[in-house]
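for the recovery benchmark. tokens below, seq after
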């Protein structure tokens, strides 16, 4: 990969929330987001909802609400560290080729959490960079399923 852009855009900002239904109600009723998608990801230990604005199929912005599935979930640990209150847990950058971007980031000394990408929301491929190598942000990189890439 050359020195051009690595990232397409901010795919979503992820909020840790103690209760998914309550958080959906707040963000939809008060802030006008729409639920685009909801799923359970056992491997990541989350129950999640993706919320969007804009026309269906061409969202302007997305936020992801992440509630813990169990006590060992990374989200449970994050909430505990944060006094049980929700907050921004991650920022996710969209990429076109997660394997190429992962290789470039590794070459540049970034610590990625997984040997190979895992499955994320809606069948996307996801990888995370540890906050210690990003200046304190948990950074997700996400390659959407081919049909939803742009
Ligand atoms: C921990 N730290 C954070 C952080 N979590 N800093 C910024 N943002 C966060 N979210 C800091 C923490 O304060 C410590 O700093 C340091 O990192 C190491 O803490 P730790 O006790 O080792 O933290 P752990 O055990 O909570 O692990 C942190 C990591 C964990 C990042 C390794 O959260 C992880 O594996 N995350 C990736 C998976 C994930 O987040 N899944 C849920 C979303 P000091 O005290 O040492 O300075 S799933 C998802 O996004 C999906 C499905 C999707 O988008 O499709």
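predicted aa per position
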């Amino acid at each position: 990969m050359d020195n051009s852009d690595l990232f397409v855009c901010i795919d979503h900002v992820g909020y840790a929330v103690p209760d998914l239904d309550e958080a959906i109600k707040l963000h939809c009723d008060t802030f006008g987001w729409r639920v685009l998608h909801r799923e359970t990801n056992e491997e990541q230990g989350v129950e999640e909802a993706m919320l969007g604005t804009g026309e269906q199929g061409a969202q302007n912005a997305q936020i992801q609400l992440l509630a813990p599935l169990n006590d060992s979930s990374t989200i449970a640990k994050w909430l505990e560290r944060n006094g049980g209150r929700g907050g921004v847990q991650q920022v996710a950058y969209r990429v076109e080729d997660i394997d190429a971007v992962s290789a470039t980031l590794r070459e540049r000394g970034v610590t990625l959490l997984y040997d190979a990408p895992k499955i994320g929301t809606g069948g996307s491929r996801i990888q995370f960079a540890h906050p210690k190598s990003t200046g304190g942000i948990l950074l997700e990189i996400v390659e959407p399923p081919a049909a939803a890439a742009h």
